[in-house]
Amino acid sequence: MKARFFNCFVKLGGDPVIALTPKYKVSEFEVKVLRAMHGDDAVQRLTEIEPADIDKASHLYALAAAYGGSDIGTKDRPVGKMLIEKLFGVTLDNYESWIEESLEREAREREERQKERAARETNRGKAIISETPQITTDGQQGMEVAAAGSDVATPRPQRKALE
User: Which helix (DSSP H) or strand (DSSP E) does residue 116 occupy?
Assistant: First the structure.
């Protein structure tokens, strides 16, 4: 389904003294959750941005997880789940298994990002040095770059051409 998205500011807890906290790419469903949690006037300066296609059921599960962990509320009815079910008139079946699957998926994605980062760091440190020596006949010193990404050239000793 196509959902509306916004950038906005939120007064956490509805307290007028607390500074406004910016929130970016907030769905119309999340706006409703924020208002329910922090007060009707807590969500301010709504600026509509590009709408996006979402899977509403998955989005509601994610909101339930984001706004109330499984260790809050009763054991089998966490606060986030109860809030979403009440606000949107839905039943989040298999919520606990969805949470477990999400945590496993996030762990796999985090591990992949760490591997990619490690590979980039390894490649960044490799030297790009020519295996063959530079030989000049005009009396000029050859120059080479010491390492990948380095802009410092190091002079090579002058060598005379072989005849």
Answer: helix 95-125
Q: CA dihedral defined by 26, 30, 36, 40, rounded to 10 degrees?
A: 30
Q: What is the pLDDT of residues 26-55, one digit of tens each?
A: 999 999 999 988 888 889 999 999 999 999
Q: Which of 81, 86, 77, 87 is nearest to 68 (CA)?
A: 81
Q: Look up the pTM and report it.
A: 0.61
In angstroms, the CA 12 to CA 41 distance is: 10
- 46 in Cβ contact with 27 (< 8 Å): no
**Computed from CA positions of residues 26, 31, 32, 38, in that sequence, does the dihedral angle turn out positive or negative?**
positive
Tokens of 143: 């120059």
In whole angstroms, what is the distance from residue 116 CA to residue 96 CA? 30
Question: With bands split at pLDDT 50, 70 and 90, how would you rate the model's confidence at 68?
Answer: confident
Is residue 123 within 8 Å of 114, Cβ to Cβ?
Answer: no
